[in-house]
Design brief:
The protein has a domain at about 10-150 and about 175-210 and about 265-275: Vaccinia Virus protein VP39 (Rossmann fold), CATH 3.40.50. The protein is about 45% helix and about 20% strand. It has helices at about 10-35, 40-45, 65-70, 80-90, 125-135, 155-165, 185-195, 215-225, 225-235, 235-250; strands at about 55, 75-80, 95-100, 110-120, 140-150, 200-205, 210, 260-265, 265-275. The strands form 2 sheets. The protein has a 7-stranded mixed β-sheet with strand order 3-2-1-4-5-9-6, with helices on both faces. Strands 7-8 form a two-stranded antiparallel ribbon.
Length: about 280
């Protein structure tokens, strides 16, 4: 199955860049704790060891970059968002960060022993280009690892389910690649193979997102996402009330004995090696 690309990459890229420049701090606060649950699986999949040169593409706040440094690696974090780079430099001062395009990496071929991309592929207009670029800068014998939200999770699909039931999806957003096109092991394997990786593998990682209640959930979507935020923000007052009620009713099934919510938010971690 071909990797889906944006039909308007320039407009979609500008939309994502503007969104992440505004929302990266909200993402770190809301989703950083659950995204960090994927980090050990990512590093293991890419076979990260001390002394390796590692590139973290779409690094965001730098969680993977920090973990590479902790394992003794030499890490470079790259992101298209200046706000993300600024936040990552603050949070991980011992690593090097720079702004750049995942679809045109500013590095020579065979520059890195390993490449990581945590939850980034769904945010670039042309993910196949990004995958091929990550393969280009990978040294022979090296491995790359990628993570994506599993389509069986609850947190993001629930937003759209509630809006379809109680509001409208007729929101003028630039067309982007399918958010969950890497959200199963089979699709992740197909994408890596299509991009030219060898020795591919994909695993599912169970993880939960812990939030205090529906209001914290909605605040996280509004302050820590881009596409989902735009859809929610476009609803009328009455529709927004209906969406909130729908989400609150659905989330009750994930309430813990302490009264908080443990929302399933699994990931797919794929990895592949340089074919040389």
């Amino acid at each position: 199955m071909p990797i889906e690309q944006s039909r308007d990459p320039e407009r979609f890229g500008a939309f994502e860049l503007s969104g992440w420049n505004s929302n990266i701090a909200g993402y770190e606060t809301a989703f950083g704790p659950v995204a960090r649950q994927t980090v050990p699986s990512m590093l293991d999949a890419a076979e990260i060891r001390s002394g390796m040169d590692v590139l973290d593409v779409c690094c965001g706040p730098g969680a993977l970059t920090a973990a590479v440094v902790e394992r003794g690696g030499r890490a470079v974090g790259l992101d298209f968002s200046p706000a993300a780079i600024s936040l990552a430099q603050t949070l991980v001062p011992q690593a090097r960060f720079q702004q750049g395009d995942a679809q045109s990496l500013p590095f020579p071929a065979a520059s890195f022993d390993a490449v990581l991309c945590g939850y980034g592929l769904m945010h670039v207009p042309q993910p196949e280009m990004a995958l091929r670029e990550m393969l280009r800068v990978l040294r022979p014998g090296g491995r790359a690892a990628f993570s994506a939200w599993d389509e069986s999770g609850v947190a993001f699909p629930l937003v759209y389910e509630a809006v379809r039931a109680c509001g409208t999806m007729d929101v003028p957003l630039p067309q982007g690649p399918g958010f969950f096109q890497f959200g199963t092991r089979a699709r992740m394997l197909e994408a890596m193979t299509e991009a030219g990786f060898g020795r591919v593998n994909a695993v599912s990682v169970d993880q939960d997102w812990h939030v205090g209640g529906v209001d914290q959930y909605l605040e996280a979507i509004l302050k820590g996402t881009v596409r989902a935020r735009a859809v929610l923000a476009a609803q009328t007052k009455d529709a927004a009330a209906g969406v909130r009620a729908y989400i609150a009713d659905y989330l009750n099934r994930f309430r813990t004995p302490a009264g908080a919510l443990a929302i399933p938010m699994p990931a797919v971690v794929g990895s592949g090696g340089h074919p040389g």
